[in-house]
């Protein structure tokens, strides 16, 4: 089944909020083997709503609309769909009672304004999707073989109605299965990867699609199979995993940080960080993963040289002779924090993130990263030459990639 | 001018990534008084791309398309637009040289595959938007009075090209001047703020609009004046700043982190951090600001209790009696890191970010934050009860707000 999502509201078009609702709905539909063909964000305008509904109904059998069901006058969705479907709005008695109860709870001393009662207005003949967690109900409308669902835009109300009212209804009508398999790879650029697996990619049947999703040093491969048994997708998944060997970080759809936390947890390993130019970003990206406390005890942000000396034990002579942004310093930082925290692995960064602080010898974007492992410490110089934000982001990504590579190397030995 | 944004790529439709690019572009265009009328997300499919371009060109004069410019064969955008505009693709020599240089830098020992060269293919007659920070260039195409812009989907490349290539071109082409003034406020909710300035808002001329942009404890006020001299916008800006007094964090459009770095630099103050549940996120948000090294020497991520004891000097008895997530511990963490680093101010966090680790007494989302200043230490308990990501994000925002409030209070004394 093809679906489309339409979000109504100026906030997304103005960039005041990011549309995370659609991504969430996309995930849910995907799990139910329903393919989202298009997501459209439009303003609270009758003409735009009508055009979007009309176009979507020419392409999809399921149309999910969020937003525009609030009580204020800039929400025109109800009137517009009444015209679009050529059916009147009727006031639902059960919903009205619910709206009145909620209003009393939040404002016990006030009379409910007429405008709020309009939230109980639903399209005549629709299936009312009762909203336990908010005032505006959802509506399920079947019209000329197409399913239309209207939902409030408030994320937790939308999620409640989707989970409890819509997905159960959709779960029945499935004809075709959709299956996905993922491979997270490291150490091969998108084009090298493509060359490495050309023959496998060319042998894929029509029903299986391969997508490359590159991101900061990793390439995520996604196989999607539509409409057949899952045996062949697993066959190709295995083929790819075998071919890519040590470049495979994970065979499921996780981040490098998640892979590190999972693997280190399994092996009982601990990681520590000593950051200068990344300013806590490496620690932050590791600790964003649930369960990071199993592998991470300690991180030091050593922005000033005295902290590098006093906490991490970097030799003042090294700082004097080579400077803070040097291989010697970053190695001592990594080894220092490893010792301090009794960790098995440690990452250190020192560089010039910019925009200030560059010199002809060490321009902005010069970054040294060291990773100290069980048996050795590796270090590498990068020249990112970008904005502060990007220099930091890339330093973090490269540091985690270096950690992964050393971890895999030491695993083999 | 009306604009539309089209994003190409399955990842958004599958819900694997949230479309934050469009919101960012929407903000930038809005500042130029260009109204985004629709945002459309579609798959890497020639037919869908063609239909979207065709429909968008019937509604808007500016169409910004992101994504689908990668080197692999699932990116069909280039071929599709060649057909759509009925013009061949040509290989741009300068871009090819740039792609080769970048390739050499990242993989000095390898031959560049043919597939990468295709990234230098651009539409014949387009204006090539040279991409300093990545391989795929952008393209600016004017066709039947409509401006089409094609950009890579990688956020930092998209942002670089928008900021440095597209916005300047759009700014030059504008007929009416657009001026903005900002006020960043803290400590007043949106509705209280509105009540505080009702009379000023009502006295605004037709040509000046006031927008409220609330986000995580701050409210950003934006005055926009279209088409007149800038004198009156400054008059109203001053009126608002005067009225809001100590609630004003900044009179320009900067983040709270930037305001902290600026103010602390001016006063010669230093900040330190001792983080548990925020895992380096507070240090990271401060050090994301250029010039942060003037105010920030040291941050400790003390995830494990032994680090809280050994590095920050938290009393083991306090940890035993009250636990790591307690007012007593977080106060000792803040005071400990302040002493350790000789800073003037210190922030500490300790909480249960989740999803694991909650108890009936201290459920997920329980977070203690302390800020130690020149004369006193303040602390506060929060109950965010959200996902790990949101709990961390809110903890950081609240910690910075608490720091700012204590700083302003101690400034007055």
Automatic annotation (TrEMBL), chains A, B:
Source species, domain of life: Bacteria
Annotated MoaB/Mog domain residues: 4-173
Any Pfam family matching the protein: CinA_KH
UniProt cross-references to CDD domains, sorted A to Z: cinA
InterPro entries linked to this entry: CinA (IPR050101), CinA-like_C (IPR036653), CinA_C (IPR008136), CinA_KH (IPR041424), Competence-induced_CinA (IPR008135), MoaB/Mog-like_dom_sf (IPR036425), MoaB/Mog_dom (IPR001453)
Signal sequence, renumbered to the chain: none
NCBIfam families tied to this protein: cinA_nterm, PncC_domain, PRK00549.1
Record-stated family: Belongs to the CinA family.
This protein's name: CinA-like protein
Organism for this UniProt entry: Sphingobacterium alimentarium
């Amino acid at each position: 089944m093809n679906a489309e999502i339409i979000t109504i509201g100026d906030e997304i078009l103005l960039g005041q909020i990011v549309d995370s609702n659609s991504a969430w709905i996309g995930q849910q539909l995907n799990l139910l083997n329903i393919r989202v063909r298009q997501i459209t964000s439009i303003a609270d305008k009758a003409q735009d709503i009508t055009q979007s509904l009309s176009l979507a109904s020419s392409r999809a059998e399921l149309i999910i609309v969020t937003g525009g069901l609030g009580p204020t006058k800039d929400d025109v969705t109800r009137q517009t769909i009444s015209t679009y479907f050529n059916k009147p709005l009727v006031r639902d008695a059960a919903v009205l009672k619910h709206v009145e109860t909620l209003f009393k709870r939040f404002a016990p001393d006030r009379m409910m304004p007429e405008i709020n009662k309009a939230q109980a207005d639903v399209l005549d003949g629709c299936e009312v999707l009762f909203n336990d967690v908010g005032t505006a109900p959802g509506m399920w409308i079947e019209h000329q073989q197409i399913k239309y669902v209207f939902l409030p835009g408030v994320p937790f109300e939308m999620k409640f109605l989707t989970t409890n009212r819509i997905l159960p209804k959709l779960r029945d009508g499935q004809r075709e299965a959709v299956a996905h398999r993922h491979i997270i790879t490291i150490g091969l650029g998108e084009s090298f990867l493509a060359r490495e697996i050309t023959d496998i990619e060319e042998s894929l049947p029509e029903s299986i699609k391969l997508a490359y999703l590159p991101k900061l040093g990793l390439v995520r491969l996604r196989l999607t199979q539509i409409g057949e048994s899952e045996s062949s997708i697993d066959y190709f998944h295995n083929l790819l995993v075998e071919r890519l060997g040590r470049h495979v970080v994970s065979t499921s759809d996780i981040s490098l940080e998640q892979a590190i936390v999972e693997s280190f947890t399994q092996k009982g390993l601990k990681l520590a960080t000593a950051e200068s130019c990344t300013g806590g970003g490496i620690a932050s990206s590791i600790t964003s993963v649930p369960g990071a406390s199993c592998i991470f005890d300690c991180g030091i942000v050593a922005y000033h040289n005295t902290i590098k000396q006093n906490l991490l034990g970097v030799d003042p002579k090294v700082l004097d002779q080579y400077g803070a942004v040097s291989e010697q310093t970053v190695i001592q930082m990594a080894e220092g924090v490893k010792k301090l925290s009794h960790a098995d692995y440690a990452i250190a960064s020192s560089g010039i993130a910019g925009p200030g602080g560059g010199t002809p010898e060490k321009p902005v974007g010069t970054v040294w990263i060291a990773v100290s492992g069980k048996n050795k410490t590796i270090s590498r110089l990068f020249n990112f030459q970008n904005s502060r934000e990007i220099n930091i982001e890339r330093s973090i990504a490269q540091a985690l990639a270096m950690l992964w590579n050393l971890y895999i190397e030491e695993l083999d030995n």
